[in-house]
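Need a sequence for this fold. Nothing fancy.
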């Protein structure tokens, strides 16, 4: 399972339903894009130290996935598909969707706009 930023935030905040998704034994990955968005949120938080410590512990047990040349092929295909259907995604979410398709994994997210991406399964909590 690949975590979207809102899922990572929910888990960091201890939301039980989101945390239960992790407990189901899925291989969990965090896109580098999500990591950047989450760290931006940490930088603006008054609980910065607690979130940084929590994130450091989490990064010991999850995989961070990066954008590669292969990812760019998925990105281009998805972007063309969405342009033709008139259903664009925010730029960062387009990269996250490309990583989901590349790795063939579902995304844990509350963002329903991922539902318009072919061959992408969104899990909500």
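Here you go.
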């Amino acid at each position: 399972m690949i975590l979207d930023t809102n899922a990572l935030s929910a888990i960091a905040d201890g939301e039980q339903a989101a945390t239960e998704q992790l407990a189901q034994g899925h291989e969990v990955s965090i896109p580098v894009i999500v990591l950047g968005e989450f760290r931006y949120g940490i930088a603006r938080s008054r609980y910065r130290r607690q979130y940084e410590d929590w994130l450091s512990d989490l990064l010991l047990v999850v995989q961070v996935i990066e954008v590669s040349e292969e990812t760019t092929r998925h990105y281009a295909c998805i972007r063309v598909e969405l342009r033709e259907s008139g259903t664009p995604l925010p730029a960062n979410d387009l990269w996250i969707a490309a990583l989901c398709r590349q790795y063939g994994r579902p995304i844990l997210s509350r963002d329903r706009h991922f539902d318009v991406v072919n061959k992408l399964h969104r899990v909500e909590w």
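For context: Residues 69-85 form the longest helix (17 residues).
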